[in-house]
């Protein structure tokens, strides 16, 4: 009578905390087969099938109310798995067809947080805000380990950063032109990931504190253009002259305020415009 021993290599299994995992025997058990599952460096028995009877040894252990066995294959199912269940699982199959052994290295990972994309206002610049073509963003995730944080444009990787086993917070900046919504930030384990897609409409706007300043400059530019157009009208009545004086006074006040801001419009241009408007107001009053 020949008895064969089959040795199997180590199988690695990665799973998220809270999921269920099945460790497969890859056999169909016979009546007299003895299936034994052990866990950890002490090789503590946690489950077995002997003469088609199932025994679960999990009372008062970390596996209590979590283990099941398939009565057809002897595969072990761990429900609602936790990080404390990470480790080495050893399977022994004793059969009149020969003995076989299999080992599983199970790694349980914490749930991945959703990456958060924010405006990176620590890198805001005047040119960025005024043109509104470039956008400085920051993708962040907290309390992670053994992950990679990446920026993508479509399916193309733009940049990435990785962390090993330390539980830390990660951030990854990105400078881009606000052209479309095809950008995304991904935090990933080797076997799964979570993704946040960029909404350019919400994020690529002037930074807090600068938006109000440039709204004022925008109003000033519109006011200047409108007032310049009004200059082209032929003044035919005292009412029109009075209206133009009011417009000139408003423009002079706005230009004076803008000149006090830094940065603002070109100071030389602003000073010249102030002088011109002041002379126009004087001339209009003389003709009023």
TrEMBL record:
<dbReference type="Pfam" id="PF07686">
    <property type="entry name" value="V-set"/>
</dbReference>
<feature type="domain" description="Ig-like">
    <location>
        <begin position="115"/>
        <end position="201"/>
    </location>
</feature>
<dbReference type="InterPro" id="IPR003599">
    <property type="entry name" value="Ig_sub"/>
</dbReference>
<keyword id="KW-0732">Signal</keyword>
<dbReference type="InterPro" id="IPR013106">
    <property type="entry name" value="Ig_V-set"/>
</dbReference>
<protein>
    <recommendedName>
        <fullName>Ig-like domain-containing protein</fullName>
    </recommendedName>
</protein>
<dbReference type="InterPro" id="IPR013783">
    <property type="entry name" value="Ig-like_fold"/>
</dbReference>
<feature type="signal peptide">
    <location>
        <begin position="1"/>
        <end position="18"/>
    </location>
</feature>
<dbReference type="InterPro" id="IPR007110">
    <property type="entry name" value="Ig-like_dom"/>
</dbReference>
<dbReference type="InterPro" id="IPR036179">
    <property type="entry name" value="Ig-like_dom_sf"/>
</dbReference>
